[in-house]
Amino acid sequence: MNFIRRTLLAAACVASLAPALAQAQDIKPRLIRFGYGLNEQSNQGRAAKVFADEVAKRSGGKMKVRAIGAAALGPDTQMQQALIGGAQEMMVGSTATLVGITKEMALWDTPFLFNNVKEADAVLDGPIGRKVMDKLEEKGLVGLVYWENGFRNLTNSKRPVAKMEDLNGVKLRVMQNNVYLDSFKLLGANAVPLPFSELFSALETNTVDGQENPYNTILSSKFYEVQKYLSITNHVYSPWIVTVSKKWWDGLSKDEQKVLRDAAIASRDFERKDTREEAAKALADLKAKGMQINELPPAEAARMRDKLTRVNASIGTTVGMDLWNETQAELAKLRGG
Ligand code: TF8
Predict the structure, then answer these.
(1) Edge-to-edge strand list for the sheet holding 292-295
(2) Which atom of ligand 1 is closest in space to residue 197's alpha carbon?
(3) Residue 21 counted as domain residue
(4) C-alpha to C-alpha distance for 92 and 225, rounded to whole angstroms
(5) Is ipTM over 0.90?
(6) 177 CA to middle of ligand 1, Å?
(7) Residues 210 and 76 placed together within one structural domain of the fold
């Protein structure tokens, strides 16, 4: 056989192998409604699109993800119930809104748990993150991956928060989660739980004075239009979690489940990179939009931090001391202690 014929034959073999492999996979046409709360132009929206593309690519176009943003399928808590009941296939949302279903998720609400994103990635993607995620299954949900929402910072329309006392009398929206509620009450704010989907108009109508979210969200949800002051507190690292209805998941083939798992990992890697790039320049963008930004003097930040450690004991009780201690040990190890 001459060289050209051999090359052509090899190429033909490779070409015929690919469709054969795709056919060998046990994949049926599937429609997946994937709900999320932020808008399409947010980091959450961009990553949802990447997830949809990855699923299409890995399933030869048979599995179709319809990404539905802006809480059009309802706020986090409503979508969670739809997943549990089997009326919706997938979603991404805050771990904090899952605590009512799986109490172990409160671990991620611990103020100042992670010092940086490296620690967050290591713990969330490691055995502890897995363990917390797997607790969802007995409640009818399957967790696939954690995405980054990010370190949260305070905004409000009244005054710059430069010390704890500046929060006195500030009506502050918090997520529907007791750790957040208790933490901000402890700091002196008038904390009010509200779903994210109601937040912009609550700020606009002065139903609440402030809120706390990562820079990315303050930017993508245009909170700068209705909030003057941004105080850099980085009080907690907030993860998002991609979940699946277990009712629906259990009816999928192993190949279909693998498509979703692999696509979720690809979306996570994209999402974290994208979020961090956006966060790195968001502060300058927010300043350009007219927000007045202040950092807390280190002594004041330390006072807030000290006060917030009081919620740690109750988080330990909620999530179980074994999990709490395991997490502290893991963090000490990561910090070289
Ligand atoms: C919040 C969260 C939101 C999420 C999102 C809607 O403040 O930070 O980003 O719940 O999924 O509610």
Answers:
(1) 190-193, 171-174, 210-213, 153-156, 229-232, 292-295
(2) 6
(3) no
(4) 26
(5) yes
(6) 12
(7) no
Residues 268 and 300 in one domain: no
Count up the domains in the chain and report the number. Answer: 2
Q: What is the pLDDT of residues 289-325, one digit of tens each?
A: 999 999 999 999 999 999 999 999 999 999 999 999 9
Distance from residue 119's CA to the centre of ligand 1 (Å):
21
Q: Which residues line ligand 1 (CB under 6 A)?
A: 37-38, 76, 93-94, 97, 149, 175, 196, 213, 217, 238, 240
Q: How far does residue 86's CA lie from ligand 1's centre (Å)?
A: 22
- Residues 175-219: pLDDT tens digits? 999 999 999 999 999 999 999 999 999 999 999 999 999 999 999
Domain that holds residue 167: 153-236+284-334
The C-alpha atoms of residue 149 and residue 43 are separated, in whole angstroms, by 9
> 67: which 2 tokens?
């990404």
Residue type, 196: F
Read off the pTM: 0.93
Q: Is residue 10 part of a domain?
A: no
**Which is the closest atom of ligand 1 to the Cα of 92?**
11
